[in-house]
Design a protein that fits this description.
Number of helices: 9
Mean pLDDT: 96
Structural class: alpha/beta
Low-confidence stretches: none
CATH superfamily: Alanine racemase
CATH class: Alpha Beta
Strand content: 15-25%
Shape: globular
CATH architecture: Alpha-Beta Barrel
Oligomer: single chain
Order of helices and strands: HEHEHEHEHEHEHEHEH
CATH topology: TIM Barrel
Strand order of the largest sheet: 7-6-5-4-3-2-1-8
Helix content: 40-55%
Length: 230
């Protein structure tokens, strides 16, 4: 546990320094500890060290871990969601970061309404232009937010992006600037029922730049747990 605890402390220190550089409070940034391929034991160690939000990439992997991790923990889905996994996802996650099309939003809204829930989601935006990445195109994001606002059982709480995979973190900055600008554009559109509370952006390689550009959620795995085991 000491290794995870030490790594976590260093990540939180780096978040605090990045926030200070941007004139922000460290408390305005929530760390999402991404646990893809990590065993439940490692997650329990992270929770014992202070982690309060856990991010998983796959529904089926989270299903094997949630009951094995005790404590006051919020679970977020940070990976791509298939429509046939929506019902299971709603039983596991408090926030879904990766809604990028209307059909998925409709399925989430339908399943959540059937369960008497209101699902909290973020819109995933492809700010890098990479064909390999999921996400709605930036020019279509305002329209998608408006269409989702008309669906019962689902609430848009902000935006998410995966920055370009570049060796220089500062070269990824335009992706985060683009997402923040889009947040401001959607906010100015005053779409009923759509909140722009969160910007989920930044991972192990670039989270400090993301914090400088306004991230409220950073998704960090390797810097806390070490290299993935699979």
């Amino acid at each position: 546990m000491s290794s995870i605890s030490d790594h976590l402390e260093r990540v939180l220190e780096r978040i605090a320094r990045a926030a200070a550089r941007a004139g922000r409070a460290a408390e305005d940034v929530t760390l999402v500890a991404v646990t893809k391929t990590q065993p439940a034991e490692a997650i329990r160690d992270a929770v014992a060290a202070g982690v309060r939000v856990v991010g998983e990439n796959r529904v089926q992997e989270a299903a094997q871990k949630v009951d094995a991790v005790a404590g006051d923990v919020s679970w977020h889905l940070v990976g791509h969601l298939q429509r046939n996994k929506v019902r299971a996802a709603l039983n596991l996650f408090d926030l879904i970061h990766s809604v990028d099309n209307l059909r998925l939003a409709q399925e989430i809204g339908k399943r959540a309404a059937q369960a008497g829930q209101r699902a909290q989601v973020l819109l995933q935006v492809n700010t890098s232009g990479a064909a390999s990445q999921f996400g709605v195109e930036p020019d279509a994001a305002v329209d998608l937010a408006g269409r989702i606002s008309e669906i019962g059982g689902i609430a848009v709480e902000g935006l998410m992006t995966i920055g370009a995979f570049l060796p220089d973190p500062d070269a990824v900055r335009p992706c985060f600037v683009r997402l923040r600008a889009l947040r401001d554009k959607i906010t100015a559109s005053h779409i009923p029922g759509v909140a722009m509370t969160h910007l989920s952006m930044g991972m192990t390689s670039d989270f400090e730049v993301a914090v400088e550009e306004g991230a409220t959620l950073v998704r960090v795995g390797t810097a806390i747990f070490g290299a993935r085991s699979g």
